[in-house]
Design goal:
By secondary structure, the protein is of the alpha/beta class. It is built from 7 helices and 9 strands, in the order H-H-H-E-H-E-E-E-H-E-E-E-H-E-H-E. Helices cover about 30% and strands about 25% of the residues. Helix 3 packs parallel to helix 4. The protein is elongated. The model has no long low-confidence stretch (mean pLDDT about 95).
């Protein structure tokens, strides 16, 4: 018991938070004694002390960009969608209404109906030229070549990955591409941040159908700005750019 108490007292939380969780614990134990449906032993203490907030926090990039992309896939309404290393939440959810092939450098052990999980390298995608009509690669390319996920160090790895995405995209096909936008820099070995102009230059041979922006911080309750402007993107430090590109026929 003393060992558990010492560990609890050293979890990096202030005295008031510790006192509150202990007070809640003993109150719960006392009330539970009237109808003991579960054990609530000291050895099972697992304190969560930073979540008594007025609102539920969340990762703005990952909640909003996956919601944006799911709506776009529904609008595109493909017979099959290919995703390369985007959020697992995205590919698993959209597989409820469209067959999905999910490719990843480190394929997850994931099994669901309508979802096929396969190994894939963005430097050499397993498709013929112009084979994929509905494609997504979101919050991924900014990592390529930084070694974060065991991939080879390559300063131009992101550009090579972008070329592969464009190569396999079919004429008339849609590409949902998401990446950090703002002032361009590498935050090694986490990710790159691109300017809006850089992304438009890299995809200059595709047609931009929509650009939406997830600001780093909520401004007046804004979650995502649909049909955002370059100026809005350029004001960001670590915003999230959601690009819907189409390949010309």
């Amino acid at each position: 018991m003393l060992k558990k108490l010492n560990r609890f007292l050293n979890v990096g939380i202030n005295y008031a938070s510790r006192a509150l969780i202990l007070s809640d614990y003993f109150a719960f134990r006392k009330m539970s004694a009237r109808n003991p449906r579960f054990t609530a032993l000291w050895k099972d203490l697992y304190p969560q002390v930073r979540e008594k907030t007025k609102t539920t926090s969340f990762d703005r990039h990952y909640v909003y960009h996956t919601a944006w992309a799911a709506r776009k896939v529904r609008e595109i309404h493909p017979s099959m969608h290919v995703d390369v290393a985007s959020s697992l939440y995205f590919c698993t959810i959209i597989s409820a209404f469209v067959p999905v092939r999910f490719y990843d450098y480190r394929p997850p052990l994931l099994e669901l109906p309508n979802l096929e999980v396969l190994p894939g390298d963005l430097m050499k995608l397993p498709f013929r030229d112009g084979e994929v009509s509905s494609l997504s690669c979101m919050h991924t390319v900014e990592h390529v070549g930084l070694g974060r996920y065991g991939d080879p160090i390559d300063p131009d790895g992101d550009l090579k990955a972008i070329q592969e995405l464009k190569r396999v995209l079919a004429p008339g096909g849609s590409l949902l591409f998401v990446t950090p936008v703002g002032k361009p820099k590498v935050m090694f070995n986490a990710h790159r941040i691109y300017s809006f102009s850089q992304i438009m230059e890299y995809f200059s041979d595709l047609e931009l159908k929509e650009f939406s922006l997830i600001p780093e911080f909520s401004e007046n309750g804004i979650g995502i700005i649909t049909h955002a402007t370059r100026a809005q993107a350029d004001r960001e430090n670590y915003g999230c750019g959601c690009f819907w590109f189409m390949k010309k026929r």
